[in-house]
Amino acid sequence: MRILIDFFPIALFVAAYKMYDIYTATAVLMAATLVQTGIIYVVDRKLQTMQKVTLVLVIVFGVLTLALHDERFIKWKPTVLYASMAIVLGAALWIWKKNFLQILLGSQLSLPEAVWARLTVIWVSYFLFMAALNGYVAALYSTEDWVNFKIWGYAFPIIFIVGQGLYISRYIRDDSPAEGPASNAEKDAP
Length: 190
Fold this sequence. Notes:
Blueprint: H1 2-19, H2 22-44, H3 49-68, H4 72-94, H5 100-105, H6 113-140, H7 143-152, H8 155-169, H9 181-188
């Protein structure tokens, strides 16, 4: 369900681009991102920092694209978002000695400190890769090619998330009580 919620603004953006143009698609992306953020807020009763930053960047770069009638703004928005996230995570880890991933996800995942640090470096690397890749496509290819890249480019986050899951799965501890003769006897006791 969450993947569908995350994917629908991009899907609507691509559909609007194919039917109309980049400016209509930008307006659709802005509206869809507002709706997406509202849905996430209703479901979770809160918004993560990444969701807030994404919303602000979509609105700011969307307004610039529409007001200045310059498609470069919306094309470079992902690069700015990814680079910003890499800078924040990296600065927090190496300058402020804080691990934002652990702060955000530590209540949901119990991992050793060294794994949290490696995981943050992996995320920083991923964000830098995605920023560079989007920048490359935005700078050197047509808008049509960039929009098509947005479609198949969704393979990168899926591959990254699966790979990350495989990496951390060996470190996740199962804190639930073991099922065995003693625990079954306890269940049967009056």
